[in-house]
Amino acid sequence: MIIMFIAVLGFSLSRTIDAANTVDTERTRTAVTAAVQAQVRQIIVMVDDNALWDAAATAVYTNLSDTEFYWSSWGFSSAEAKYFDTVLVLDHEGRPLLGYRRGRATRFDPIARYGESFRILLERADRQRQAVGGLAGSAEGPVLIGIANIVPTNSALDHLVPKSGPYWLVFTKPFDQGAADLIGRSLLLDDMKLSDKPLGQAAIAVRDTAAKPIANLSWTPARPGNTAIERVLPWIAIAALLHILIGLFFGRQALRSVSKLADEAMVDSLSNLPNRRAVRQELDRRLKRGERLALALIDLDGFKGINDNYGHHVGDRLIKSIATLLQDLVGKNGMIARLGGDEFAILIPGASAVNQVQDISRAMLDKLSRPFRIDERTVLVGASIGLASVSLRDLDSSELMRRADVAMYAAKQAGKMRLAWYDEMLDQKQAVARTIEAELRVAIDAEDFELVYQPLVDVHEKKIVAAEALLRWTSPTRGVVNPSEFIPVAEETGLIDAMGMIVLRKACRDALDWGDVRLAINVSAAQLRNPEFAAALSHALAETGFPAERLELEINESYLVYDPDTAGRVLGEIRALGVGVSLDDYGTGHASIGFLRQFSFSKVKLDRSLVSEAGLSEEARTVIHANVAVARALNVAVAAEGVETADQADLMRVAGCDQLQGWFFSRAVTAREIAARVLKDHPEHPSSRLRAV
Q: Is 465 in a helix, a strand, or coil?
């Protein structure tokens, strides 16, 4: 009987030990599986946050050559490899357009590298229209993959998405021994191993999206039953309780690990501030509770020039300095976030949120009016700030962010280094701008623009020596549209490049019949910032057969002030073609003797405001004489625009101007009328080049 009791007790204890070991191993398997899925969810959250972004959509669909944006948004993070080490942008058919791998530019076919698993993920993302993720095998081992459509949050930018379908943003990260170690540490399993085959009794298969095993995670089981039986029998109950507590502890550790991974997905890796997803989550939470909120969106002005001139490391240091500045200004009153690139957000809750966010924004602009010291360099950066609030009306987070974004663009259009509150009129202006944009696209396709020309005459002989091309456009719905309305829309939407080349080619063809008379064309800063501008200019001259030495490009000094180093390089490329460069609106802004010497202008044009005031103000006449004297000393020709009376013409002649332009001499006329005027002024020219009309 005793023997039977001992046998039964021994058998029971043995089964209890085995059961305890089995339960612990299965619980650990569940926790390990959950930790693997947590890493998948982390990369899904990360790629979704980066793909659902207005700035990303604008850059990808309008300017794939904007390496500054892609580096600051994704390239830097790929080099750090904390959340992903590879990023790809694919077109709607899955073809690679650009990418970074561990901080270096790359481009490869992901299906060729990751096989059927990637194709399944891509089809799933296309079918579900939301971010997806999973695991895939590769020659270098298992990888975590996240895929999401690149789409804007602002419906006003929906037109940027190609009709054939949106592009894909892909993040990948190795699922290697480092990932296994992270899971092991989070679950207190220090000997976690990633291998081709299971090692020991405790293991799980890591499967790709096609459910195919691609690796195994193995560990040494804790075997709490064996530990318990080694103790004396009176302590079996305590050992069992301890086993339960250990199991609970492991479960809690697994939950904490999952929670930590989720928290990291809400933080910007460069500034350590909350990211875009964190802001949206906080907005949703507070809006559901009916709180009063004020939101500021901040876009830095001049940041790209700092990166280009001094390198990304200086730009990264500046981003961190801006983050510190915002933390000092906001304190504990609200939330600060980096939305990506050079964009930040401030969220202030409470009854006084409107006043607080406005005061903080003004203080921000005041701080940015003074330069930053980065290592041994002094850099200056500005900002445009858009503000929006919600109190009694029901708004969701997307609408509040959209309104602040609309206000931010209004601040930028108003001259930068200022703030603007959202107003419903801004939406009306955006609607008008969208209509103009759509009609401009049609006009560009049909090259449906008109050019007129205003002559510049020699100050002494009154003969035409040059003619400035002036663009005219008639909207099918709005009639004749002032250039001050449609040119900014073309610049903001990237249409200015195509429109500018149409104007250039048409003007060059028109001016072929003008003998030696020069052709002047105004070029916007947006065109000059295109790195391909000089090549496109050269192609247009070759295509039309227009002599480069007869062409003058007029630029505004604001382009020079914004980024003088880049401007000097671009203007040098233009002059190398034989094309002249003139400075427009001279005498009213920042242009100095240093500017005139640095950029070697062939001509400067006195601003019309100085000309109109010359007959009324001795001070204006003094400014004109001084500016002309400076230009003369540097052997730069001087033209005066806006001459409308004989007295103004005499004053400009006495001041020493070389050329005059304005209604006193001629209104803007057609190319044929310019040709007739040239023939009259210059009868000595061969008729083969000057045909009367």
A: strand
Give the C-alpha distances (Å, rounded to integers) separating 420 from 6, 167, 408, 491. 86, 32, 6, 21
Q: Distance between the two ends of the chain, CA-based, in angstroms?
A: 131
Q: What is the model's pTM?
A: 0.57
Q: Which segments of 512-603 does DSSP mark as H helices, in order?
A: 525-528, 533-544, 557-562, 564-576, 593-599
Q: What are the Cα distances from residue 59, in Å, to 69, 99, 365, 685?
A: 7, 14, 26, 50
**603-606 and 637-640 strand pairing:** parallel
- Give the single-character DSSP code of 549: G
- Residues shown for the chain: 693
Predicted pLDDT of residue 659: 94
304/322 Cα distance (integer angstroms): 15
Q: Are 63 and 57 in contact (CB under 8 A)?
A: no
Retrieve residue 271's tokens.
């500034």
430's enclosing H/E stretch is: helix 424-446
Q: Which residue has the tokens 């703030």?
A: 419
What is the C-alpha separation between 526 and 328, in angstroms, rounded? Answer: 35
- What does the pLDDT read at residue 687? 42
Half-sphere exposure of 6 (CA within 13 A, CB side): 3
- 303 SS3 class: helix
Sort residue 479 into left (φ over 0), alpha (ψ -120 to 50) or beta. left
CA atoms within 13 A on the CB side of 166: 27
Sign of the dihedral defined by the CA atoms of residues 675, 680, 686, 687, in that order = positive
Two structure tokens written together for 416: 């930068």
Q: In whole angstroms, how far apart are CA 5 and each of 9, 133, 231?
A: 6, 56, 20
Span 99-132, pLDDT tens digits: 999 999 999 999 999 999 999 999 998 888 889 9
Sorted by sequence, the CB contacts under 8 Å of residue 466 that are 6+ apart come out as 455, 456, 517, 518, 519, 520, 552, 659
Q: According to the model, what pLDDT value does residue 159 have?
A: 86
What is the phi-psi region of residue 165: left when phi exceeds 0, alpha when psi lies from -120 to 50, beta otherwise? left
Determine the Cα–Cα distance for residues 303 and 316; give it in Å rounded to an integer. 10
Question: What is the greatest pairwise CA distance in the chain?
Answer: 137
Question: Closest Cα to residue 335, out of 396, 273, 421?
Answer: 273
DSSP code for 181: H
Euclidean distance between CA atoms 241 and 247, whole angstroms: 10
| Residue that has been written with the tokens 């806006």 in this structure | 642
Give me the pLDDT at residue 507, please. Answer: 96
User: Which residue stretches of the chain have pLDDT < 70?
Assistant: 1-21, 224-241, 243-264, 392-394, 558, 561-563, 588-595, 684-693
Tokens of 650: 């005499």
CA separation for the pair 205, 36 (Å, rounded): 11
Using left for φ > 0, alpha for ψ between -120 and 50, and beta otherwise, residue 275 falls in: beta
- C-alpha dihedral (44, 47, 53, 55), degrees to nearest 10: 180
Task: For residues 216 and 199, give the distance between their C-alpha atoms in angstroms, rounded to a whole number.
Answer: 8
Q: Phi first, then psi: what are they for 657, rounded to 5°? A: -70, 150
| Amino acid (one-letter) located at 399 | E
> Residue 305: which of 580, 593, 525, 30 has the closest Cα?
525
Q: 476 by DSSP, 3-state: which? A: coil
Name the DSSP letter for residue 233.
G
Closest CA to 227 of 214, 240, 244: 240
CA angle at residue 143 from 139 to 144, to 5 degrees?
Answer: 165
In angstroms, what is the C-alpha Rg of the chain?
A: 34
